[in-house]
């Protein structure tokens, strides 16, 4: 079972050029899965939180394309937060890890590359249900 201690920031190749920088994320090289879905979150009002769920089967690479935000990961026992603020870095969130995103800067854009297409059945949206799925006691 994956814990938050196993998770780290993943650097991507950054190709610097006088005309601007380029970063690439390729399935099989930079990502341990084939990308089945990409989506981005933006225009998040101050003080709002996104995420608040875990996945049963889907893995996700979360990247701050613009601006910054805090990604907090929770394995039911420990929590770990990452400040994402570089478009050439991401965090691979494995199956079974609860995530929240908050502290969005003005103009922040969060891009997510996912291993699966959208399926509501793959989501665990209740934290108590999440704890039960990991064999932990509710009411932590």
What is the fold's blueprint, element by element?
Blueprint: E1 9-11, E2 13-15, E3 22-24, E4 37-42, E5 50-55, E6 60-66, E7 69-74, E8 79-84, E9 89-93, E10 98-102, E11 109-114, E12 123-124, H1 127-133
Antiparallel strand pairs: 1-9, 2-3, 4-11, 5-10, 5-12, 6-9, 6-11, 7-8, 7-10
Describe the structure.
This protein has a single domain, classed as Sandwich (Jelly Rolls), CATH 2.60.120. About 5% of the residues lie in helices and about 40% in strands. It has 1 helix and 12 strands; from the N terminus they run ββββββββββββα. The chain has one helix at about 125-135, and strands spanning about 10, 15, 20-25, 35-40, 50-55, 60-65, 70-75, 80-85, 90-95, 100, 110-115, 125. It has a 5-stranded antiparallel beta sheet with strand order 1-9-6-11-4, with no helix packed on it. Strands 8-7-10-5-12 form a 5-stranded antiparallel beta sheet. The protein is globular. It comes from Muribaculum intestinale. InterPro entries: QdtA_cupin_dom, RmlC-like_jellyroll, RmlC_Cupin_sf. This is WxcM-like domain-containing protein. Pfam families: FdtA.
